[in-house]
Amino acid sequence: SPSTASPAHSASTASTVITNIAALVTNDPSLGDRSPLGLIQDAAVVIEGDRVAWTGESSKAPATDNRVDAEGRAVIPGFVDSHSHLVFAGDRTQEFNARMSGRSYTAGGIRTTVAATRAATDAQLEANLTHYLTEALRQGTTTFETKSGYGLTVADEARALRIAARHTDEVTYLGAHIVPPDHADDPAAYVALVTGEMLDACAPYARWIDVFCEQGAFDGDQARAILTAGKAKGLHPRVHANQLSYGPGVQLAVELDAASADHCTHLTDDDIEALANSSTVATLLPGAEFSTRAEWPDARRLLDAGVTVALSTDCNPGSSFTSSVPFCIALAVRDMRMTPDEAVWSATAGGAAALRRTDIGRLTPGAYADLALLDAPSHVHLAYRPGVPLVSQVWRRGVPVT
Ligand code: NIG
Ligand code: FE
């Protein structure tokens, strides 16, 4: 039945109806086919200001100022990319070449990007960030989280977050990405810096705190100390967990009620059970396994255990240099045993869950009008037609952006 946005949101100037949508993914399971995607056929969506005001059958759509004919194509919520590393300079082409010749990925490559990032000006970092954001937006990403982690000094981490905060509300302090070369002899002193002066300088710009909990980065005890210090400063935890090896990251994420445990490539049955009994989302990042020629995370095992799964790009110059959520959806379906419906849900509603947001990742009255019109009759084509640029138009906060 028709409904309107709350009065706080209806001070909008213009309204738009998109009609003749062959398949509309709402992610509201009470709508349409009653599946998790809440798929409505022959649908319309009404946008008022920056919000969704109405969804339903195309023939019942209310009249509005503007009308867009979807011509039998599909509409989905904009992608919520809940894991990226976009404040950096330079690239790692040589390292990628070496890897594709047989060398394996290690955390150590991060140092190359740290050196390039420290040497860059603020303007260069911001131009780089804007470049990748524009790229992502054209491919349907309307919300993104991004992190520091390539500065690793008080000033360089704080400036990364200051720059990121101009472009997104979902900013993550990752001073604990690796122990930088300048602290190689004294990791404990670096942890003290990350939990002390650096945290004080970074907390004003960030919502989240993250740690790379991994061999060659930070162990479980260090990670607990860092995340606990962040919590005490009002930051909420998320964790790079169990990417390269089995380890304590996932259990720690659950223990600290992290919004998300990210990567989740090497999981024991206990890890899966801990996630299933928690509100911590497992964020899978298949671009990383693709670009490092690593074993795929087993999405099926997580889903069958009842874990909430998000799908994101991990876009960064080392382990996953893609900004394309559609590419990650195709990988997840082909190689991680997800169905196309599950992958599309995870890249939209799943990403929103990993950011503990209910105002994005769904197309229901009151949610932000962040949506993508596909050059395809169904969202399934995102996996079925890999590598094809199917996102033909994007609205962000009700405004057409492409
Ligand atoms: O999520 N795993 C740690 N951090 C990144 C890689 C960063 C890099 O190699 O520059 C990741 O994969
Ligand atoms: Fe990452």
From TrEMBL:
Residues 1-11 have a biased composition (Low complexity). Keywords: Cytoplasm, Histidine metabolism, Hydrolase, Iron, Metal-binding, Zinc. Binds 1 zinc or iron ion per subunit. Gene3D superfamilies: Metal-dependent hydrolases, Urease, subunit C, domain 1. It comes from the Bacteria. The keyword Cytoplasm applies. Zn(2+) binds at residues 83, 85, 240, 314. Pfam families: Amidohydro_1 (PF01979). It is found in: Cytoplasm. Fe(3+) binds at residues 83, 85, 240, 314. Pathway: Amino-acid degradation; L-histidine degradation into L-glutamate; N-formimidoyl-L-glutamate from L-histidine: step 3/3. N-formimidoyl-L-glutamate binds at residues 150, 316, 318. Residues 261-379 form the Amidohydrolase-related domain. GO terms for cellular component: cytoplasm. GO terms for biological process: L-histidine catabolic process to glutamate and formamide; L-histidine catabolic process to glutamate and formate. The keyword Cell inner membrane does not apply. GO terms for molecular function: imidazolonepropionase activity; iron ion binding; zinc ion binding. It catalyses: 4-imidazolone-5-propanoate + H2O = N-formimidoyl-L-glutamate. Its cofactor is Zn(2+); Fe(3+). Its EC number is 3.5.2.7. HAMAP family: HutI. Belongs to the metallo-dependent hydrolases superfamily. HutI family. Catalyzes the hydrolytic cleavage of the carbon-nitrogen bond in imidazolone-5-propanoate to yield N-formimidoyl-L-glutamate. It is the third step in the universal histidine degradation pathway. NCBIfam families: hutI (TIGR01224). This is Imidazolonepropionase. The gene is hutI.
